Amino acid sequence: MWEYFVAIVLGIVEGLTEFAPVSSTGHMILVDDMLLHSKELFPASVANSFKVVIQLGSILAVVVVFKDRILDLLGLRRMRKPGAAPARKGEPRLKLAQVFVGLIPAGVAGVLFEGYIDKYLFSLHTVLIGLVLGGILMIVADKLGPRVLKVDTVDKITYKQAFGIGLFQCLGMWPGFSRSGSTISGGVLLGMSHRAAADFTFIMAVPIMAGATLLSLVKHWDSFTPEALPFFIAGFISAFVFALISIRFFLKLIQRIKLTPFAIYRFVLAAIIALFLYL
Question: What are the transmembrane regions (predicted)?
Answer without folding.
Answer: 52-71, 96-116, 122-141, 200-218, 230-251, 263-278
